[in-house]
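input
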Amino acid sequence: MGEENNTETNSDPNVKYYTLEEIKQHNTSKNTWLILHDKIYDVTGFLEEHPGGEEVLLEQAGGDATESFEDVGHSTDAREMLQQFFVGELHMNDRKKDSSKDVLITTSTGQSSWTTWLIPAIAAAIVGLMYRFYVLENRSS
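output
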């Protein structure tokens, strides 16, 4: 339990690397590890102090809590506090390789964003012109 794998070639030799299998073993209230952005944190000593309650951390224990952590919107102070719990990084072979998916989502959102304001703007202009025409027609009658 807790064996580290330091066979990385392009990495900091001072950082310990853990596999997902090793991290999954740390899933109890007496031994609680979390993965956040491919970094491993031992939050066992923080369980009772966590403002959201220890249950929230225990639900994610031994796994990747990045999405849950970001969904809550933790403060800068909370992010800085994490550093004291840092134990290592996720082994390169276990890291998610979905960056191309993120790029597609970002690109797609960027392309459709101009239509979200352009279509309503055109509709408002047409309605405005129709209203002016209607008002002017009624005044001249």
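quick obs: The CA atoms of residues 77 and 83 lie 10 Å apart.
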